[in-house]
Amino acid sequence: MKDIVNVDLSVDPVIAQMSKYNHEQLLFCNDNETGLKAIIAVHNTVLGPALGGTRMWKYSNEMEALNDVLRLSRGMTYKNAISGLNLGGGKAVIIGDSRSMKSEALMRRFGKFVESLGGKYITAEDVGINTSDMEFVNMETNHVVGLPGRSGDPSPVTAHGVYVGMKACAKLRFGNDSLHGKKIAVQGVGHVGEYLVQALSKEGAEIYITDIHEPTLHRVASSYGARVVGLDEIYDLDVDVYAPCALGATVNDDTLSRLKCSIIAGAANNQLKVEEVHGKMVMDKDIIYAPDFALNAGGVINCYSEVKGLSSAWAMTKAEEIYSTIENIISRSQKEGIPAFKIANKMAEERIEAIGKVKLPL
Fold this sequence. Notes:
The chain contains 14 helices and twelve strands. It has about 350 residues and is of the alpha/beta class.
């Protein structure tokens, strides 16, 4: 008989974190054979099954991964609600280096964990994950979207929504929605960032870009006539729009003391490091802030089209509505003197509450 090892089974810190964001369920996934370590967070299923992508990132520790998946899944609930979609919010993170640790076995094992939730969570691609990875996941579960030959890569629709939302911000700040000649700093030129740069280039914007991946950075700069700047330098540029399109929390104490923009509008999730603190600081600095979950909803709109069997044309048309959503949020924020993120949160919560009266959680 093996010796019994004493293990601290206290879950209070985790339950406290779940309570903070009002989550329904967390699934911790581990498989020694494939090296899989993942967390799936189901935040809310009042409006429908929880849909949200899977992110693979080399987190410094497990608590960092936990905090990220909790914030991201909550953001998906709000994103789906404010976009008028019949979906709840969820997210998954795989802990590890996506460039060296991914394998067919790891992704298929992750697919088995998704399947174990019985449709309560639907996954898709996110940072560090591509459509080929989702094909492996799909070998073990049908609860996956964004597959080749179906709705595919959601990046173009996400970028289009960010683009039209940015134009709505410009209309409120400058009197018209033209971005021609406007100086725009795009932080992160991965899938979504590159499509955004492409749209801005076509309109004649003056574009500055940065990214941790040098080959991609210089290719995008060459393709669209953008100017390359340093990773830290981007916060000090005198521009009209700062567009964070990489990871979150880049709007914080340090950057807000340096940013010289009139508008913050980008594709990244959780851009405000601390909502209550930095959301108010943005407003006090008279910067128009487009709440990220409302602005970057094009990706989930694209995934929803696959879930419901709708066309790619429907997804693009639906993403156009982000213009009026952002315009409404910012207008209310300015009129009521309330930070934009609070207005957006309230709009999402009101829809969840209304539908919750006629639907029970899954």
